Task: structure prediction
Amino acid sequence: MIRPKLLKIGILIFICCALCVISNVSFAQAKEYDGVWFLGFNLHTKLFGDENGKIVRQAVAIAIDREKIAKKIIGDDTVPVGIIPPRMEGYDPELPPYPHDYSMAKNLMRSAGYPLNDKRLKNISFLMTDGERTKLIVDEIKRDLINLGFDITTTVVKYANTKEWEKELTSGKYDMFVMGYKAGSIGEIFIADKSTGLFHKFTCFKNTTNEADQQFFDKYSVAVAAGFSPCPVCKPEPEKAPTTLALLQPLFYSNETANAAFFQSKRVDILIEEVSMLDENLKASRKDKFEEIGRIILEELPVVPLFYITSL
Result:
């Protein structure tokens, strides 16, 4: 059996902060998704990983108002159910959603042996970045989980400090965390120069400072279609197409770098290995395998999807 190549955690994207950088750039394109933002559980902890851990994870998923997060905080009408976003290979619109129901969640917690005033629910550690919308999301999660008796203490890492974030995320010190993950390349902004007919990477020193000559693009192919050529100095490259495998493998294959929940499933590993060897033309087989992975993730709940990430 060949071990799939590790995918670096560098594809992690702190979308709530990254969007602020390009909030003033308008792109005319249909909404598409290429990633997911989620609440993750540390399955190495007793609370979320012991024999009753799945019940606790289900209680948390039912307590969180994901519709409020997606629609009111993010401004997206699509409320996630499964881990695979719409339009991506293996998306299953028939997956049954977890309801938002505090009474049901409390009953689940009691059945798992955690009454409302249980001391083991105090001082639950939570890792997050410092993006403005990240704070709003975590505040909402904290309010929802207070109803189950959770007392959450947050540790905040600056979103720009990627090394510190990776270190803390993979340390296993925290009970819960929130993060986003995009499949394929992270969205990049290209700046075209109307006076030269070239387009550049955002950080290229050849970029013109004349705003009248600037034109912004969020895709290499769109810049080329508009008649611009890639800069020979900074050499912008086409983005890698987002794939479902590129989304699922880093997050859920055993021991992958971005598997911060420490999720392990022999069946998921086998399915990922099988689909990685399937020809892309075998669409039905690939779809079946991705859908099965999606069902397992929804059942086991190593993470709770909060909203899908729109392609940049």
About this structure: Residues 1-29 have pLDDT under 50 and may be disordered. Residues 81 and 96 are 7 Å apart (CA to CA). The chain has eleven helices and nine strands.
